[in-house]
Specification:
binds magnesium ion, about 200 residues, binds adenosine-5'-triphosphate, Rossmann fold, globular, single chain
């Protein structure tokens, strides 16, 4: 049996195809503002709501980029939990696994504004709401918010108008990623030849 740590643990889920400083700035600032012990960047194995809308990079490549992006940053960790579970990635399952591991944890599910607006469509979202605190960060250019009556912590973070979608088209066009993506993650995606020649 776990004795319980009372750990304050952030879950920042995403496709991270690729990760960028918008993700990282949000994660470190939420960690600081809410005094979280750690924030897990949980890489979706199969982001079921995106499947079919565009080709996705393999989950192992996305995890490798997130690992490279957070290396050496205190309190940020790449999580392979959803890859190990396989199949469609539901935050409700991730919350369940993390609480099974240590029931004394306090969980904080961090969402950008666009993801927040989509939360009612998540699988078993009531479990997420009842078992974790929702943390909302604003995102420039994003519409929408949480539905009426939902409670969330709002954390002000520097507003960075950066998206993975734009970064993928930058690679395709040969435009620079510098200062938008950490250097180690740029090296990783270059070595893996991601986003080139009609790939995602
Ligand atoms: P894509 O353009 O492929 O959808 P993305 O940049 O939106 O990629 P995701 O992996 O879809 O990145 O997002 C993961 C989480 O990070 C979501 O909660 C999203 O709202 C949040 N997020 C992404 N970019 C930013 C940003 N620039 N500022 C704040 N939050 C962000
Ligand atoms: Mg997105």
């Amino acid at each position: 049996m776990t004795t319980g740590s009372g750990e304050r643990l952030g879950i920042f889920g995403g496709t991270f195809d690729p990760p960028h400083i918008g993700h990282l700035v949000a994660a470190v600032n939420v960690r600081h503002a809410l005094a979280l012990d750690r924030v897990l960047l949980t890489v979706a194995h199969r982001p079921w709501q995106k499947v079919g809308s565009r080709p996705l990079s393999p989950a192992a490549d996305r995890l490798a980029m997130v690992r490279a992006a957070v290396a050496g940053v205190p309190g940020l960790e790449a999580s392979d939990l959803e890859l190990r579970r396989g199949g469609d990635s539901f935050t409700a399952d991730t919350v369940g696994e993390l609480l099974d591991e240590d029931p004394s944890r306090q969980l904080f599910v961090i969402v950008g504004q666009d993801a927040a607006a989509g939360m009612p469509t998540w699988q078993r979202v009531d479990e997420v709401r009842s078992r974790a605190c929702i943390v909302l960060v604003e995102r420039p250019g994003a519409e929408g918010t949480l539905p009426d009556g939902w409670t969330a912590e709002r954390v002000e973070v520097p507003r960075l108008e950066i998206s993975s979608t734009d970064l993928r088209s930058r690679v395709r066009d040969g435009r620079p990623l510098d200062y938008l993506v950490p250097p180690a993650a740029i090296t990783c995606l270059t070595e893996r030849r991601l986003y080139r020649d009609g790939s995602p």
